[in-house]
Write a structure and sequence with these properties.
Largest sheet: 5 strands, parallel
CATH topology: Rossmann fold
Helix content: 40-55%
CATH superfamily: Cobalamin-binding domain
Strand order of the largest sheet: 2-1-3-4-5
Number of strands: 5
Shape: globular
Radius of gyration: 14 Å
CATH class: Alpha Beta
Number of domains: 1
């Protein structure tokens, strides 16, 4: 990441999940940690998330998924990112994610998973470390 560049993250709630308190809390935590946060709101289609991420030139897409549909949502997201030539955007996932699914998500390309109960500061610390290591 370029020195002095404020990291940009798109937070999204894909699918029919109507619970966004955690995503809003995370948006505030990331802003407090120095990120520029774009929150798309509830009920986003994966296509809309990818288009917004590209238009906003984000460094990271953060998905908050409480519905249990994390595997098909992430599969579709990565397929669309690749098709649009935007597969350099880092993806992190939070929400209700069973431990047994975390290895599969990481195999797909998810950089990190933050299940419910994760430390509120963990995503920002992880993202800062990862973004600092990325080539300019």
């Amino acid at each position: 990441m370029a020195a002095g560049k404020v990291p940009r993250i798109l937070l999204a709630k894909p699918g029919l999940d109507g619970h966004d308190r955690g995503a809003k809390v995370m948006a505030h935590a990331l802003k407090d940690a120095g990120f520029e946060v774009i929150y798309t709101g509830l009920h986003q289609m994966v296509e809309m998330i990818v288009e917004t991420a590209i238009q906003e030139d984000v460094d990271v897409i953060g998905l908050s998924i409480m519905s249990g549909a994390h595997l098909p949502i992430c599969e579709k997201l990565f397929r669309l990112l690749k098709a649009k030539g935007a597969d350099d955007i880092m993806v992190v996932v939070g929400g209700v994610i069973p431990g047994r699914d975390i290895p599969r998500l990481k195999d797909m390309g998810v950089a990190e998973v933050f299940p419910g109960g994760s430390d509120i500061d963990a995503p920002a610390a992880f993202l800062k470390e990862q973004l600092e290591q990325r080539p300019q």
